[in-house]
């Protein structure tokens, strides 16, 4: 009983530490400047106000939110399509240098993103893609090493006899992939989609570097832009953070079962 009580107390403390920053975001976003300076940060505002949320949305943040949704949707679809084709080729098709090419590509995961940021920017500048949607999407649209590695390992775990039986019936590689392999790969594809949505929505450095106008600015860059010349307005920044947080919370509530399954599948537990 003592061990179980200590374990649950530890879990409760850990959960509180994890949730407390999000609670502060909600409480601060619903306070006025006067309430923020006259009350403790962890106490709710009485009465709460939605003025900060309305001010942020009227300042153009709604457009940034739409840009993030569009970017996330495009990159998720691109990842699922191109990553699946590449992973299936590395897992099942036989061609010269397949394994060497695969492991060289996977080895790029060990290279910090800061190392490739400047070369990527120079490439986009030569292609005249600065401050364009193509420049924003191009580095991630055709797949990532982690996504290809994840799908390849899942494809290799599928029974080869299913594909052999389909091949005997006259099915080609594309038919086998679409009609047999993909229906069996929904857990892995769900994992890849969840990881892509979260990483894309939270991506900050590349959108900050490649975009400069409001036509392509996303939520993360928009939040950073709320910092004024004379300092930070915590009410507005936390209101913007709350608006950016709500879609991720909605996704978690709606797809909680698949998120737990993705954690088990990828071994992140």
Automatic annotation (TrEMBL):
<comment type="similarity">
    <text>Belongs to the binding-protein-dependent transport system permease family.</text>
</comment>
<protein>
    <submittedName>
        <fullName>Carbohydrate ABC transporter permease</fullName>
    </submittedName>
</protein>
<feature type="transmembrane region" description="Helical">
    <location>
        <begin position="236"/>
        <end position="255"/>
    </location>
</feature>
<keyword id="KW-0813">Transport</keyword>
<feature type="transmembrane region" description="Helical">
    <location>
        <begin position="64"/>
        <end position="90"/>
    </location>
</feature>
<dbReference type="Pfam" id="PF00528">
    <property type="entry name" value="BPD_transp_1"/>
</dbReference>
<feature type="transmembrane region" description="Helical">
    <location>
        <begin position="7"/>
        <end position="30"/>
    </location>
</feature>
<dbReference type="InterPro" id="IPR035906">
    <property type="entry name" value="MetI-like_sf"/>
</dbReference>
<keyword id="KW-0812">Transmembrane</keyword>
<keyword id="KW-1133">Transmembrane helix</keyword>
<feature type="transmembrane region" description="Helical">
    <location>
        <begin position="136"/>
        <end position="155"/>
    </location>
</feature>
<feature type="domain" description="ABC transmembrane type-1">
    <location>
        <begin position="65"/>
        <end position="255"/>
    </location>
</feature>
<keyword id="KW-0472">Membrane</keyword>
<dbReference type="InterPro" id="IPR000515">
    <property type="entry name" value="MetI-like"/>
</dbReference>
<keyword id="KW-1003">Cell membrane</keyword>
<feature type="transmembrane region" description="Helical">
    <location>
        <begin position="102"/>
        <end position="124"/>
    </location>
</feature>
């Amino acid at each position: 009983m003592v061990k179980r009580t200590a374990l649950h107390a530890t879990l409760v403390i850990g959960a509180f530490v994890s949730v407390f920053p999000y609670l502060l975001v909600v409480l601060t976003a619903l306070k006025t400047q006067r309430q923020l300076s006259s009350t403790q940060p962890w106490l709710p505002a009485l009465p709460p106000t939605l003025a900060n949320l309305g001010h942020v949305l009227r300042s153009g943040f709604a457009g940034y939110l739409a840009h993030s949704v569009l970017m996330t949707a495009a990159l998720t679809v691109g990842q699922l399509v191109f990553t699946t084709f590449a992973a299936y080729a590395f897992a099942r098709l036989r061609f010269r240098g397949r394994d060497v090419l695969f492991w060289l590509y996977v080895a790029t995961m060990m290279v910090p993103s800061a190392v490739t940021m400047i070369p990527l920017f120079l490439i986009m500048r030569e292609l005249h893609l600065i401050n364009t949607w193509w420049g924003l999407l191009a580095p991630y649209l055709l797949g990532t090493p982690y996504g290809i590695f994840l799908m390849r390992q899942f494809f290799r775990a599928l029974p080869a006899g299913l594909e052999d039986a389909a091949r005997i019936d006259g099915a080609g590689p594309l038919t086998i992939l679409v009609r047999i392999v993909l229906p069996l790969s929904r857990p892995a594809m769900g994992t890849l989609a969840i990881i892509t949505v979260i990483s894309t929505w939270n991506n900050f450095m590349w959108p900050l570097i490649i975009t400069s106008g409001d036509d392509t600015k996303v939520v993360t860059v928009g939040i950073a832009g709320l910092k004024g010349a004379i300092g930070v307005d915590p009410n507005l920044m936390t209101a913007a953070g709350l608006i950016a947080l709500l879609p991720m919370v909605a996704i978690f509530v709606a797809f909680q079962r698949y998120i737990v399954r993705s954690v088990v599948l990828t071994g992140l537990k």
